[in-house]
Design a protein that fits this description.
By secondary structure, the protein is α/β, with parallel strands linked by helices. It is 42% helix and 13% strand. The structure holds 4'-deoxy-4'-aminopyridoxal-5'-phosphate.
């Protein structure tokens, strides 16, 4: 490329790697979706209106004023021991009762941990397996390391273990180095699908048999609408799975606190890589989260939010049934928790241009291409119900229906 291709000659200095940092289609839409009057089915943020802000404010004051020596200083690279121990209680609520607190690393959100995982395990050309569709942020984090992201076969019950083994073997036979399986086993973002209980251990076993690490991304795990949460993969497989957790969906994304549970043998390398980037996760927000877990009924808050998301999900499924129930070729997933419903339109429709039409009609969603490991335009779209009331959902569907019907009727 010649120098005059750049508006500033310093742009010629960008690393080759940096050209692979993609702009997230989802983030673009976020900017649009804050426009007043728009019904947003786009944002996957939690319902912050339910947060006990007064109590959190008091906790924040205590952190900064009463614990200033600790709160305002550097911390330790692993995160604070006190919070690491409390995180094991959060894991226990999810069914992983025996997590050793010394295997918990506090992270600056799980997005950060995805980057570190790719950094410490993958060289250029290595393969990361994933579901299709999968979380756009992980795709963006991985692609910077020039890895090959390869989807594995799934159905409405998640990854098919036998197909996973076949995929791994054929990639290996083709000379590829397959390093890990990135999976969102509970309430996948964007599909809403969960890995069936009877497939959970076979998926880990398939990876173990081929010496492949499982990266379990589970920010929605506690947000199952009914009954006990799905047992995380890490619970029975602490030596095979790196588990990523987050306070973003059960407390607030703004705190930027998450965690990783890491097999003992891998912990040191992982944490040194994290430390090299952030030195230490934010002490202020770690203490804030710790105070939250000490002084606020967080289990009660989580169960209230489960009920709220269940109500919203039901409103969205009812709206889908009402507006599209008898439209041929339109189907959708029925999630058991989390924030998202994944809608399929008839084959051949590209949902990307429809996003613009939706915005013009006052409703916004994310087109399926954003979540495609191969960047393939497709006939799917993601609808988030976490941030919209049942009334807004109904209004959103009144606006969405003509947009989608025009595309369906050609
Ligand atoms: N993983 C998944 C599956 C997500 O949906 C998100 C947030 N949208 C993240 C990770 C990022 O979480 P955090 O805020 O902890 O970085």
């Amino acid at each position: 490329m010649t120098d005059n291709a750049f508006s500033n000659p310093l742009e010629a200095l960008f690393s080759e790697r940096s050209a692979h940092i993609k702009q997230s289609a989802v983030r673009d839409v976020f900017d649009i979706s804050v426009q007043p009057g728009l019904v947003s089915f786009a944002s996957g943020s939690p319902n912050l209106k339910a947060l006990p802000v007064e109590e959190l404010g008091e906790a924040a004051r205590r952190v900064v004023v009463d614990h200033s020596a600790e709160a305002l200083n550097y911390g330790v690279g692993t995160g604070m021991d006190q919070l690491r121990k409390q995180i094991t209680e959060v894991m226990a609520l999810e069914g992983a009762e025996n997590v050793d607190w010394e295997t918990v690393l506090v992270t600056t959100g799980s997005q950060f941990a995805q980057d570190i995982a790719a950094k410490v395990f993958c060289d250029e050309g290595d393969v990361i397996l994933c579901e299709d569709p999968t979380y756009v942020g992980a795709l963006n984090a991985f692609e910077v390391y020039r890895v090959e992201v390869v989807p594995v076969a799934t159905d409405e019950h998640g990854i098919i273990p036998e197909a996973l083994t076949e995929t791994i073997r054929s990639l290996k036979a083709a000379g590829k180095r397959v390093k890990m399986l990135y999976t969102i086993p509970s309430f996948n973002n964007p599909s809403g699908i969960s890995l069936a209980e009877e497939r959970r251990q076979p998926v880990v076993d398939a990876c173990r048999a081929e010496n492949i690490l499982v990266l379990e991304d589970n920010p929605y795990g506690l947000l199952k609408f009914d009954g006990k949460p799905f047992r995380p993969l890490v619970a029975d497989n602490p030596d095979d799975v790196i588990y990523l957790g987050s306070f973003s969906k059960i407390l607030a994304p703004g705190v930027r606190v998450g965690w990783a549970v890491i097999p003992k043998a891998l912990f040191r390398r992982f944490y040194l890589a994290a430390e090299a980037v952030v030195l230490t996760p934010s002490t202020v927000t770690q203490l804030l989260v710790s105070e939250y877990l000490t002084s606020i009924d967080w289990r009660g808050a989580i169960s209230e939010s489960r009920a709220l998301y269940k109500e919203r999900c039901e409103a969205m499924l009812a709206a889908l049934e009402r507006e599209f129930g008898d439209v041929e070729g339109v189907s959708w997933t029925v999630p058991e928790g989390g924030f998202f419903v994944w809608v399929t339109l008839p084959e051949g429709i590209d949902t990307y241009p429809l996003m613009r039409e939706g915005i013009d009609a006052g409703v916004v969603f994310i087109p399926g291409v954003a979540f495609s490991p191969n960047d393939e335009p497709n006939h799917h779209l993601r609808l988030a119900f976490s941030n919209v009331t049942p009334e807004q959902i109904d209004e959103g569907f009144r606006r969405l229906k003509p947009v989608l019907m025009r595309a369906i009727e050609g």
